[in-house]
Automatic annotation (TrEMBL):
PANTHER family: ACREF/ENVCD OPERON REPRESSOR-RELATED, ACREF_ENVCD OPERON REPRESSOR-RELATED. It comes from Lysinibacillus odysseyi 34hs-1 = NBRC 100172. Residues 36-55 bind DNA. Keywords: DNA-binding, Repressor. Signal peptide: none annotated. The lineage of its organism: Bacteria, Bacillati, Bacillota, Bacilli, Bacillales. One of its GO terms (molecular function) is DNA binding. Residues 13-73 form the HTH tetR-type domain. This is HTH tetR-type domain-containing protein.
C-alpha cells in the first residue's frame, strides 16, 4: 500500500532530522572545512545520494545548524524571562537549564557549532550574513535587558551589562569545550557561574 502524503512528509522530516543530528556530530569533530557529505551520510547510516536528496550542500546543513543553535540560545532566555522571581533568579533558572543540556549531548554540540561559526574563516556566506543581519538576535544582546533589570533593583553589580553578558557566555562556552575534551569533566552548580553578577 503506497504511503499517504502525510506519511511522506513525516518521513521527510525524520530523514532531515537524522541527517542534521549526524552532521552536528561530524561538524563538531572535524569542523566545517574538513567535513565531507560522505562522512555525514556514513554517520547518519544513509547513502551519499540520499543526503543530497534532502540538502543541496554541507554549507546548507551547517547554516541550518547555526540557526538552530542561535534560536535555542535565545529561546532559553525568553523562557527565563517568563519565570517567577527576580532577574537573578531567572538567570539562575536559565543557567541550570543550560548546564543540564551540557550533560545531555546535543546541546553541547550546538554550543560548539556556534563557536565554530563565530571564529572560523571557513563558514558559509549565509552564516556570515546571518550574524550581520539586523534581525539576528545574539544571546549576549538578549541577556543584557535582564542584567540591566537586575542592576536597577540592586541585585546585580553595576558593571557594564554587555561585559557581564559576554563573561557569562564565556564561562558556558568554556565548560562546553571542557566537557567535549574530557567527558568526566564536572559541570559546576549554577550558583558558581552566577557569582559573576554579584
Amino acid at each position: 500500500m503506497p504511503r499517504t502524503e502525510i506519511q511522506n512528509l513525516e518521513l521527510r522530516d525524520q530523514r532531515r532530522e537524522q541527517i542534521l543530528i549526524a552532521a552536528l556530530k561530524v561538524f563538531s569533530r572535524r569542523g566545517m572545512a574538513a567535513t565531507k557529505i560522505s562522512e555525514i551520510a556514513k554517520e547518519a547510516g544513509l547513502s551519499h545520494g540520499l543526503v543530497y536528496h534532502y540538502f543541496k550542500s554541507k554549507e546548507e546543513i551547517f547554516t541550518l545548524l547555526v540557526q538552530r543553535a542561535a534560536e535555542s540560545a535565545v529561546q532559553i532566555i525568553e523562557k527565563a524571562r517568563l519565570q517567577e522571581g527576580t532577574p537573578l533568579k531567572k538567570i539562575k533558572w536559565m543557567t541550570e537549564q543550560i548546564l543540564q543540556g551540557l550533560s545531555a549531548g546535543e546541546q553541547i554540540l550546538l554550543f560548539l557549532i556556534m563557536i565554530q561559526a563565530s571564529t572560523s574563516d571557513a563558514v558559509p556566506e549565509e552564516v556570515q550574513h546571518l550574524f550581520s543581519s539586523p534581525e539576528y538576535k545574539s544571546p549576549v544582546n538578549c541577556l543584557v535587558p535582564l542584567i540591566i533589570e537586575g542592576q536597577q533593583c540592586n541585585e546585580i553589580i553595576k558593571e557594564d551589562p554587555i561585559k557581564l553578558a559576554v563573561s557569562y557566555y564565556a564561562f558556558i562556552q568554556g565548560f562546553s569545550i571542557s566537557k567535549l575534551q574530557w567527558n568526566q569533566c564536572p559541570i559546576p552548580e549554577a550558583d558558581l557561574i552566577i557569582k559573576i553578577f554579584k
